[in-house]
Design a protein that fits this description.
Length: 194
Amino acid sequence: MKNTERKKLRELLIKKARIYSQPYRISDGKKFKLKRFKTDDNFDRKDIVDADEMLNITKEALKIAQEMLYAHDKYSLLCIFQAMDAAGKDGAIEHVIGGVNPQGCDVTSYKAPSHEELDHDFMWRAMKNMPERGRIGIFNRSYYEDVLIVRVHKEILDAQKIPEKSKRKGIWKKRLKGIRNYENHMRNEGTIVL
């Protein structure tokens, strides 16, 4: 395939992938309502023959985008999969990795924090696993656990060894603000967080 043909194909695949993903993008969480999304969505598009075709197109576009990310070496991509147990995170991650070169991708699974992790702030374990420039990082769960699960299981908060005054009213707003600030910082440094 000639370079001009490859470039046209790359542009077409990326354009189609953007069209397919647009309805599912969340750019401003203020207006996001999960109940607006159907769990059995059939994509309601006339230009899609079936889900397999769409998956193949988006996988090929992802492969091309990964090659460009690696060659450019100024940006990195972090994909965060956050959901309850048995929600399909592992399967979704398997599909994503199936479309990219695994040598350019790192998957980090977050379980209960270790003693070392408990001796640091709640963002520390994520910070040390951020993807390098030119690479894709995938988090199977993340620092969002510390504003979700920890709210329900107070014993986890007690184990985090933070000062008592920090555990008082407002901790969740402060942690959410810390996450937003950190993700904005990472974006400014070239890491795209999805």
